[in-house]
Amino acid sequence: MSLQTEKKFEEIFRMHFRELHGYAYRFLEDTDVAEEVVQQVFLKLWERDWEKLIHTSVRAYLYRAVYNESLNLLKRNRLKKQYETYQSQHVAAEGYNDGSDTELKKQLHAALSHLPEKCRTVFEMSRFQELKNQEIANELNLSLKTVEGHMTKALRHLRIYLVDYLTVLVLTLMFGL
Fold first, then answer.
1. Distance CA 155, CA 149 (A)
2. Boundary residue ending a domain (89, 112, 137)
């Protein structure tokens, strides 16, 4: 990235960060989380060829990105809470875990075993060791784009491989079947 592009990016960051933080805060009602969301949007923008990526105004693009990132975070948190509530109620009612966690782990392990070794390693480092893509790239001596490609491939594979199991699990969580 050229020095001119870096300066332009920094200028955009400084110009829009505060207003985007306020916008994210309206959805998230947590100043730290709102800051993380805005930083994540700028990080994703930095990692891509952002000058070619944006076809509208920069401001409009950033607002839409913060909106989407905020809603995605809220959705993930809501699903996580629903699952935790279900788990706590189910374990309390049954007095034990019925093995759905164990079964999910078995299904996940089976799905991961069908992935190529590098792809599986990248996924496990990302999801189980909670490393960022850049950290994985550095540790495995891969490019960031290669790591992103492996993650995309792994997630697509898991989505396809686990669709039946996850559908049953979600229905069970939602309707207590």
1. 10
2. 89
